[in-house]
Amino acid sequence: MTQPVPIKIYPRLTRGRFNTIRVALVVLTQLLFLGLPWLRWNERQAVLFDLDRHQFFIFGASFWPQDFVYLAALLVLCALGLFWWTTLAGRLWCGYSCPQTVYTQIMLWLERLVLGDHKARRKLDAAPNSAGKLTKKGLAHGLMLLFSLWTGFSLVAYFTPANQLAGSLWQGTLGPWESFWILFYAAFTYLLAGQLREKVCTHMCPYARFQGAMFDRDTLIISYDGQRGEPRGKQADKSAGGCIDCGICVQVCPTGIDIRNGLQYECIGCAACIDACDQVMDQLHAPRGLIRYTSAAALEGQTDIKPAWRRPRVLFYSGLLLGISVLSVVSFLNRIPFKADILRDRASLVRETDDGWLENSYSVRLINSSELPQRFVISVEGLPGIRLATANRPVALAATATETIGLRVQVEPQYAARGAHDIRFVIRSLDQPGHVLQEKSSFIGD
Q1: How far apart are CA 156 and CA 182, in angstroms?
Q2: What burial letters (b/e) apply to 126-151, b meaning 16+ CB within 10 Å?
C-alpha cells in the first residue's frame, strides 16, 4: 500500500482585525526577545542568567540557585494561565503567541518577500528546476537561515553578555559552547518554523491532543454558523444559505483545514478564516460573523449562557492562579536580601583551646543578593556561653557580591558533651536592621 504524499500548504495572505492583533504580537514578542539582551540596567545587562557565577539578574532583582522556588512558581502560573485561558477562549495562545506560530509567520513573510504570494510560490514549486528558481529559493532560505542564526545569538546573549558575545563573534573567538547553542537553536528554528511549520502543530505538539479536555460548552472557539451558512450556493440562488462556497477560509488557514467541517484538533485558533470570511461578507453587503468566535451553547441557540464567574473550571483555575500569585508576590517582597551557607570543617571536628574551651571551625559563605552594598555582623546561639573566637567585626559586601569567611566557635566543655549539638548562626544586616537570617548548624563536643 502506497503512503499518501504530504501536501505542502501555501496559506493565502489575509488582512483584518485579528490579523492586526497577530502581527502586533509577533512584533512585540520579537522586540522583547531580540532587544532585551541589549538593554542596560545599573551598568550591567538588564536580563542576564550568569551560570558561571550562579547569579541571575532581571532588571533590579537578582536571584541565586536558592531562589529557584520562584522559577517553579512562575512555571506553575504559566501552566495554569494556559489552562485558564483555554477554558475561556480556546487556543488563543497557539494562534497568537506560541513561538512556533510567531516564527512560522516570520518565515512566511520572508518567503513572500522573495518568492511572491501563495499563487506565485505554488507556481514556482511546480516549475522545473532552473537557475532563476534556484536563485530565488536560495535567497529565501538564506534569509530564513540568517534570521534563525539571529534568534540563536539572542538566546545565548541571555547567558553570555550580549556585548561580549558580539565582540567574540566579530573577532572569531567564540567559545565552543556558545557556538554550539547558537547553531543548535538556529537549526531547530529553521527546521521547525522554516520547513515543518504546520506539521509541528498537527503532529508534534501535545497541546492539540488534550485541548478538548479543557473545553466546555461555553468556551469561545472559532466556529462556522451552519444554520446561517447552509446550504451553500451562489448569492443569486434564493434557496442557498449565507456561505457562497468561495473557499477563501480554507485558502488562508495555515494548517489547511476547512472550518466549515466543525472544530478540528488541527485548528490553532489564529482567526485567519474569520478575517477572510468577514471580507467576503463585506463585499456581499451581508452581516459579518458567518465564521466567528462563539461557543457551542450559543451556536445551538441556548439563551442561558453561563458567564465566566459561574463556570466551575474557570473558578477553579482562577482560584489557583490568584492564590499562587499572592503567595509568590508576598514571599518575594518579604524575602531577605542576603543569603548564607554554613559548612562545618569536617577535617578537624573539635579541638581544645589553650584556655580549655572546645572549638569547631566553620566556613560561612555570605551572598549579598541586593543591588546595594551591605554590612553584616555574625553571631552564634544555641549553647550556654557559646562565642566566636574572633572579634565580631562587620563584613562588608558590594552589591550582588559573595565572600567566604572562616569562623571558629567556642564552647565550655561542661556545655558540650560528646556528640552533635544544634546551634544557630545569626546574620544581621547593619544597613537594613529589620533583616535577620538564622542558619542551623551543629557543634561537635568531646
Answers
A1: 6
A2: eeeeeeeeeebbeebbebbeebbbeb
Structure-block grid coordinates of residue 110: 520572508
Contact 81, 106 (CB under 8 A): no
pLDDT in the model for residue 348: 80
| C-alpha cell of residue 70 | 520562584
Alpha carbon of residue 40 to chain centroid: 21
Burial class (CB in 10 A: 0-12, 13-18, 19+), 95: buried
Spell out, as residue ranges, where the chain has pLDDT lower than 50. 1-5
Domains of the chain by start residue, with CATH? 1-335 (no CATH), 338-445 (2.60.40.10)
CB atoms within 10 A of CB 85: 15
Q: What is the pLDDT of residue 6?
A: 56
230: how many CB neighbours lie within 10 A of its CB? Answer: 14
pTM of the predicted structure, to 2 decimals: 0.85
The pLDDT, as a whole number, for residue 261 is: 93
The Cα–Cα gap between 320 and 318 comes to 5
Q: Look-up: residue for cell 549579598? A: 368
* Structure confidence at residue 67 (pLDDT): 87
DSSP structure class, residue 117: S
3-state secondary structure of 387: strand
Supply 252's cell numbers.
Answer: 488562508
Phi, psi of 173 (to 5 degrees): -115, 25
CB 272 within 8 A of CB 23: no
d(C-alpha 145, C-alpha 151), whole Å: 10
Tens of pLDDT, residue by residue over 284-293, are 999 999 999 9
Give DSSP secondary structure letters for 189-246: HIIIIIIITHHIIIII-THHHHGGGG--TT--EEEE-HHHHPSP--TT-TTS-S----
